[in-house]
Amino acid sequence: MKKPLPVRRFGVAALAVLLAGAASACSDDAAETAAVALESAPAEQQLAADCPGTVVVQLQWAPETDSGPIFGLLGPGYQVDADNNKITGPLVTDGKDTGVQLEIRAGGPAIGFQTVPSQMYVDQSITLGLAHSEHAIAAAGQQPIVAVTTLLRNSPQMLMWDPSTNPGWQGIADIGKSGKPIVVSKGQLYPDWLVARGLVKPEQIDASYDNSPSRFVTDPSFAQQGFANAEPFTYENEVRAWNKPVSYQLLKDVGYEGYARTVNVRADKLDELRPCLKKLVPMIQTATAQFTADPSHVNDVVVDVVSQNPKLSPYSAELAAFGSTALIDGGLIGNDTDGVLGSFDEARVQRIIDEFGPILRTGGADVPAGLTATDLVTKEFLDPAISVTG
């Protein structure tokens, strides 16, 4: 899932110097790295009394830089457990030890392609789960979650095509007019939104995408799902049988307003976690600001943890750099309408509910009547002083 560009600066405190060697914890030198002594965070940033001893974060997919700020909280000495698709290390803020551990778990195939809300209700040990707005709406009846911040302001989801095969396509509307297939993976909710908007026809949706490039390479006559922080780079540089540019349009450019990579807790655990979230959410905001200013450390960590897990698809340093800059310079990370990084526009959330609610109910989801933005998101724990500039 990924794309690139230059890097912006941010308007919170200057970046703290990260400890040398934080980016790598390869098995050969694990003992040496684990022995690194970390400076303690100040008392007001100590989490042991308020948070679980291990803060568990469930990703939507494999480790990638679109979850970058979470990896910015991972301190040196981290260990990769490939058997269980997880990474564990000290939870740090500004490189300082908060007194608890951070465990990051891969999603997607690692959890049998379950949605994150579903996994959060199956596994009580999960503290935070990343999700898209529409998945939170779909889960609201039976597995309600509440977003406490978001890593991305806008979604990098896109539709891509071969400009040589379909030279007349300038965007998604042209794909719809063509009547040609749109190949997406099973379980995606936005295709129904595209249909409801009248942008594409229902018979165009082909939910058989298996994340392999082989079908597109063999017959690029159709449109395919992708992410602006990934496929434009991988198809041009890493899919050797293709090795040329693709064209694409972001869903957000045709009116899709859903938030991506929201950071959620189970609704029934919000009160219990409130003391933890008051301290932890500003740390996530700070990590997001630091990632926006300079993603290189996070890029290195993500590339390293993927390299240590043979179950995961390779994730090159070049792709990591492309993906981070695509998110940053593409404006997919940034302040919301209130000027706060990681915040929510509640009117926008309500529009998402109003659009997706009827679509999801038609598909059989238990979306409660009268669902509102405040059921899905809260700004209670955000530090309004944290923002980015540029």
UniProtKB/TrEMBL annotation:
Q: Which domain of life is it from?
A: Bacteria
Keyword line: Signal
Its ancestry begins with:
Bacteria, Bacillati, Actinomycetota, Actinomycetes, Mycobacteriales
Tell me the ranges covered by the SsuA/THI5-like domain, including all copies: 97-296
Q: What is this protein called?
A: Nitrate ABC transporter substrate-binding protein
GO BP terms in the entry: thiamine biosynthetic process
Which InterPro entries does its entry note?
NMT1/THI5 (IPR027939), SsuA/THI5 (IPR015168)
Query: What PANTHER family does the annotation carry?
Result: 4-AMINO-5-HYDROXYMETHYL-2-METHYLPYRIMIDINE PHOSPHATE SYNTHASE THI11-RELATED (PTHR31528), THIAMINE BIOSYNTHESIS PROTEIN HI_0357-RELATED (PTHR31528:SF3)
Specify the signal sequence span: 1-25
